[in-house]
Amino acid sequence: MKFIPGITIVIFSFFIALSHADELCLDCHADKDLTMFINDSTEVSIFFDQGIFDKSVHSGFSCTDCHEVHEDHPDETRLPKVNCANCHEDVMEEYSQSVHGLTPLKKDVPQGTCVSCHGTHNILSSDDSSSMTHKLNIAKTCGNCHDRPDVLAYLGIRGDGPGLLFHGSVHDQVMRNNPDLNAPSCIDCHDYHLVLTKTNPRSTFSKLNLPKTCGKCHQNALNDYTKSIHWQSVLRGRDESPVCNDCHGEHSIISPEDEDAVTNRLNSASRICNSCHASEVMMKRFGLDHRQFESYSRSYHGLALLRGSPDAATCTSCHEIHAIRGAADSLSSIHSSHLIQTCGQCHKNISAEFAAIEVHPLDQESRNPIAYIIKHFYIWMIILVIGGMLFHNLLILSKHIRDKRKAESAKLRYQRFLPFEVYQHLFMFLSFSTLAITGFALKFPDASWVQLLNYLGLTEYLRSTIHRIAAVIMITISLIQLSYFIFTKKGRKEFLALIPNLEDFIHLWQNFKYFLGISRERPKFGRFDYGEKAEYLALIWGVIIMSTSGFVLWFPEFFMKLFPAWSFETFEIIHYFEAWLATLAILVWHWFFVIFHPEKYPVNLTVLDGKITYEDQKHHHPKEIIINKKNKK
Q1: Quick one: pLDDT band at residue 630, thresholds 50, 70, 90?
Q2: CA distance 525 to 518
Q3: Helix axes 530-554, 566-585, angle to 10 degrees
Q4: Quick one: how many helices (H) and strands (E) in the chain?
Q5: C-alpha angle with apex 146: 145 to 148, nearest 5 degrees?
Q6: Which of 299, 294, 261 has the alpha carbon at shortest distance from 277?
Q7: What tens digit of pLDDT does each residue of 120-169 get?
Q8: Is pLDDT of 631 > 80?
Q9: Crossing angle (nearest 10°) for helices 566-585 and 419-443
C-alpha cells in the first residue's frame, strides 16, 4: 500500500519539474522583443506566444518534449533542431525517402521540412480550416516554396508555379464551391509525406501510376482509358503515348465546358490530338501517317469545326474520348463492323456505302483513281477556260486603251509630268509590286500562290535577294525625287504645291456635298487635289518607315549594337503592318483613281506619257488653268 503513494509523488514531482522548466523558458521567450542573429547577419524573433500554442495540437506539451535544452542554456550556441521523428517515426521514415527529405543540390534552395508545411508552435489539425495543411490551404502552403522563382529555376520550370496555376482550376473551384464533392488538392495527387519524383516507379504521378491516381476520382474515365490503345502503348514502354495529364494538363485543368479549355470539343482536335498526330517524327515511330489531321482539316467536318460549329464531328466523335482503340480492334468505334453505328450518331438511316466514305482522304491517286482523274481534268479546265477568258478580256481592254489613247491624241494636251517622272513612276510601281509579292511570300508560305512561286523556282535565297534589290531600287528612285525637289526650281515649286492647306479641307467638304447630292458645285482643284497630296505624303512616310525598319531587319548584327533587343521585334511589326497599310492603300485608293474610277477607266493615260487633255484639266484642275494663264500674262 505504501508503493502507490510513492509513485504518485514521483509523477507529481515530474510534472512540477516540467512546469518549472516551461516557466524558466518563458522567463525569456515570453518577451516579444527577444531576438537572435543567424549567421551573424539575419536577426529573427524567438518570441513564444503561449496563446497560439495553447490552440495547437501540441497544447499541453512541455518545451523540452521537443527542444533539447542543455544545462548552461542560454548561451551563444543554437539548440539542436527539433526531431519530429521522436513521436512521428513512421511519418519520418516516409519523409526521408521523399524529394523533400533528400538534401538539395544547391544550398540556397530551400528544403521542404516539417516546419515548412505544418508550422511550428501553431500546428493545427488538418481538419481545422485555419491549418496550413487544410484542404483549402494546402495549395498556398505548397506554393510558399513551389511558386518561388529560385525553386522554379532549380526545378527547371518556367512561368508560374503550380500553386498559382492550381488557383482557378476546375479542381480548385469545385473544392471551394462544393466541399462535399471532395475535389483533389496537391496532397491527393502527390501524396502527403512520400512525395517522389516522376521517374520513381513508386511515384503517384509516374507515367504508369498517374491514371490510377486520377482514377481515384474519375473511375469511369480510368476504366475506359485502360482499354485504349494509348494505355496499351504506355504499358509497352512507349513514353510518347499519352496519359491523363498529356491531354488534360496538370495543375491548371479547367472544365471541358469552358470555351478556352484544351479539352473543349471545339479545341481538342487542334490543340490536343494534333499535337501528337501531326508530328511526322512521332507518327513514324508508330507507323502512322502524320497527314491524318491535315486531311481531316480539309474535310467538311474539319472546315465546319474551324468555323465554330458546335455540331461538327471532331476526333472524339468517331474515335471516342478515353476508350480509343485501333481500327483493327473489333471493339473499336471505327472498326468496319461499327462504322454504321458510329456515323449514325449524327447521320440517320445511313447505308454501309455511306459509312465507307473516306474521312481522312489521303493518297487519292491510288485510293480513288476516278476522283483523281476528274480532279486533274478540272484543274486543266480551269487553267484553259479561265486563262482563255482572261486572254479574251485583255484583248478587249487593250483595244479600249488604244482607242482612248487615239481619241486623246487628237485633242489639245499638255505635259502634266516630265518624262523622267513617268519612268520614275513606272520603276516605283515595279519595285513596290515586287516588294509586296516577295515580302508577303515570306509571311504566308502555305498560300497557294506562294507554293506556285516556289514550284517555279522562287527559293528563299532568291526571294530575299529579289526583295532587297527591289528595296534598293525604290530607295534610289526616292532619292532622285528628293534631289529633284531640292535642286531644281520646278521641283521646289512642285513640292510647295503638295503641301496641304486649309483649302484642301474646304474642297473635301465640297466633294462630300457634291457626291451626296446636296450641292451641284464641284470643288475647283489646283495643281493637286487633297487626295493626291495625301497620297504623295503617305508615299514619303511609307518609304521612310519601310526603309528604316527594312535596313534594321537586313543588317541586325550592326543595328543591334545601337538598339535594345526588344526593338528588333518592334521593327518587324512596323515593317509588316506598314506593308499591309501601303498595299491596301494602293489597291483601294490609288488604283481606283487610276483605273476603276468611271472617268478614268480603263486607265488614266497620264501614267503612260505624263500628258493630260485640256478637257480633263478643266474638269479636274480648273484652278491650275487660271493660274497658268495668269503666269503667261
Answers
A1: low
A2: 19
A3: 150
A4: 36, 4
A5: 70
A6: 294
A7: 999 999 999 999 999 999 999 999 999 999 999 988 899 999 999 999 89
A8: no
A9: 120
Q: Tell me: domain 401-632, CATH 1.20.950.20, correct?
A: yes
Residue 65: which residues within 8 A CB-CB, separation 6 or more?
Answer: none
pTM of the model: 0.72
- Cell numbers for 332, please give them: 473499336
Tens digit of pLDDT for each residue in 339-398? 999 999 999 999 999 999 988 988 989 989 999 999 999 999 999 999 999 999 999 999
Residue 10 has pLDDT above 50, yes or no: no
- Please, is 94 exposed, middle or buried when counting C-beta atoms within 10 Å of its C-beta (0-12, 13-18, 19+)? middle
Angle at 367 between CA 365 and CA 368, to 5 degrees: 70
Q: What is the mean pLDDT of residues 576-587?
A: 96
Give the model's pLDDT for residue 306: 85
Integer angstrom CA distances of residue 449 from 440, 458, 563: 11, 11, 36
Dihedral sign, Cα of residue 431, residue 433, residue 437, residue 439? positive
Q: What is the pLDDT of residues 444-498, one digit of tens each?
A: 998 989 998 998 899 999 999 999 999 999 999 999 999 999 999 999 999 999 9
Q: Are 613 and 626 a contacting pair, CB within 8 Å?
A: no
DSSP label at residue 304: H
What's the rounded Cα separation, in Å, for the pair 458 and 441?
A: 10
C-beta of residue 551 within 8 angstroms of C-beta of residue 567: no
Q: Could you give the angle at the alpha carbon of 98 between the alpha carbons of 95 and 103, nearest 5°?
A: 95
Distances (CA, A) of 569 to 47, 258, 385, 530: 54, 33, 45, 35
